[in-house]
Design brief:
The protein has helices spanning 30-46, 74-89, 114-130, 145-150, and strands at residues 13-19, 50-56, 60-66, 107-110. By secondary structure, the protein is of the alpha+beta class. It has a single domain, classed as Transposase IS200-like (Alpha-Beta Plaits), CATH 3.30.70. The radius of gyration is 16 Å and the shape is globular.
Length: 172
């Protein structure tokens, strides 16, 4: 058993990586992405949080969340999102009474400062290019990149080349 301890910071900002069960390309199907989106919206209504950036790839996702002041429960939110997504995608349970959609755990990193936040946002938006799915972030539909372009965070042609600030970052 791992000695890993999660860091809980009230009102914190966190980077997450979640992976599908056995890295199956669950989110290669639009209907499964819709199930994930629906689950996230449902949980956001019940337990408020802000999504600064997100990308959904066929076998994993990355996201940055900001929690409300004095709130530390990102684990509960992810648990509910994973359960709701799993129920909608896979109606059958396995021998352990689980629906094999997600890996059991997820990885988180507490964002330390503005530079750390910016690097992780860039990592998220460049991820589809890194995995060879598209030539540039603007070409990947399942990302917050286009909305961030609309807000002026990025130029439309950003990410045609690997951003130097994410060199060495590996969260797969």
């Amino acid at each position: 058993m791992s000695n890993y301890k999660r860091v809980y910071i009230p009102g914190g900002t966190f980077f997450f990586t979640l992976v599908t069960h056995r890295r199956k390309p669950v989110f290669a199907e639009k209907s499964n992405i819709a199930a994930l989106r629906h689950a996230m919206q449902k949980v956001q209504v019940a337990k408020r949080f802000n999504i600064d950036a997100i990308v959904v790839l066929p076998d994993h996702l990355h996201s940055i969340w900001r929690l409300p002041e004095n709130d530390i429960d990102y684990s509960g939110r992810w648990r509910e999102i994973k359960k709701a997504t799993s129920r909608e995608i896979n109606s059958r349970s396995d021998q352990a009474n689980e629906r094999p959609v997600w890996q059991r755990r997820f990885w988180e990193h507490s964002i330390q400062d503005e530079e750390d936040w910016r690097r992780h946002v860039d990592y998220i938006h460049y991820n589809p290019v890194k995995h060879g799915l598209v030539a540039r972030p603007a070409d990947w539909k399942w990302s917050s990149f286009q909305k961030r372009v609309e807000r002026g965070w990025y130029e439309e042609d950003w990410g045609g080349v690997a951003p130097p600030d994410i060199s060495g970052m590996e969260f797969e």
